[in-house]
Amino acid sequence: MNLAKWLGATAGRCIPKHPKTRAKWLAALAISLVLLSLPYLVRLDGKPHADWEQFLGRFHVLAVHLPIALVLLVPVLEIAGMFRAALREAAGFVLALALVACLGSVALGFLLAYGSGEAGATVTRHLWGGVVLTIGTLLCVILRPAWSSEAAHRGYPAMLGFVLLALVWTAHQGGTLTHGNNYLTEYMPAPMRNALAFGVVNAAPGSDSFYTRHIDPIFDAKCVSCHGASKVEGGLRLDSYEHLMRGGKDGRVIAEGEPERSLLLQRVTLPTSDKHFMPAEGKPPLTPTQIAWIRAWVQQGASPAATTLAGISIAEPVKEVPLQPVGDYSGLMPEIRAMDQGQGAKLVPVSSKLSDGLILNTVDAAASFGDTQLAQFDKFAPYVVEAELGRTAVTDASFDTLAKFTHLRALHLEGTAVNGAGLAKLAPLTQLTYLNLSGTKVTDATLAPLKSMKNLQRVYLFNTPAQPAPGADSAQNSQGAHDDKSSESK
Questions:
Q1: How far apart are CA 455 and CA 482, in angstroms?
Q2: CATH 3.30.43.10 fits 330-486, yes or no
Q3: Could you read off the pLDDT of 155-183 as tens digits, one per residue?
Q4: Where in the chain are the domains?
Q5: Is the pTM for the entire model greater than 0.85?
Q6: pLDDT in tens, 374-398
Q7: Rounded to an integer, what distance in angstroms lies between the CA atom of residue 161 and that of residue 139?
Q8: Lower CB density within 10 Å: C or N end of the chain?
């Protein structure tokens, strides 16, 4: 409460003997003491409270713009008043309005933080900034009459300058809450950034490190809403490696090489009913895979620079295969239209552009459509980009024909008699990215040829001998997208 003592000492020296002026200073001192005591009397505990507090508090984001505009207008009017006296008189009125607006904004801001459970260093700084700004504006109101009458020349201009600085700092803290702590500096020119020491604040470890690519995104998705720059539960921030390793009020949360002693891992693996379970407040828990990655990272030293971890292999995202035009099949349109009038398989254009290709649709003839019927589509093979053969009578013999579908991107074979013996014949199909084998007899052994197909991104194996065991995570074991053995049926 050093500021309160300073106010008291200042009041003792500066309060004139005139009763009205003394009363103003005493009132200012009382208001200042109330403002300074408020955060201590009603602490921001990080827990939501009454709905009416949140309802009223949300008007803070609207009301806060009024004192900003009024405070900035005051020095403009004071300077203009040197040329037109009426404007100087208006400055006093605007300053009084600014004080009222500041008091209202502080009240609404406190209701917003307390009612919604917002807490953390940035929230606290923004609150104290508002308090200091309000007290400074109040002192300007008290000091201005003496300055205006030329009885004193320094106090009011100095305090007004302080208020403007406090306004900038408080507004920056508020902007940080809504836009992040680098909102103003993100696109700052490099020379200015270096001169103002904004160069490497909370810089992440190497962009290729395991922490940057896999651990930090977990924290960003699941934890930073409560443990970031805008809100800091338990004094813990997880938005940078530096903050993570620093820990919080309960001490360090990562013990390098000792996952069983790492508080963070203890909390995320507690039963969800435990009051100490994290993430709290009903947020989605970490997946077993995410916990396994964090555990392995901690076990192997929690390094900010290591690019790989022993025992952890994660398939890199597969780049989209650029689509190749299929060519002009306009000469075959009479036959395609004839198929469309019948009850058998149909060739459906993907779009009005011939180069987008055709879809082989067998819904109307699934039970009677087999290897022989598929072979009759040889002439259309180069133009087919998707073959819907699910629940038809095709067998592994169909792969001889399918190998001619050189632009095939998606192949549905779910619910067929295929056992995978002919899958090797699909290897030349470089455009194939989707293969559904759910409900077939394929095994791990018959799937082996698919490993050479680098562009194959999705293989569906629900209800097959090759279906992954429950809980198995293909992302940990796969060496490429062709091993993504999803149990999902489509």
A1: 7
A2: no
A3: 889 999 999 999 998 888 887 666 655 55
A4: 2-194, 210-299, 330-486
A5: no
A6: 999 999 999 999 999 999 999 999 9
A7: 12
A8: N
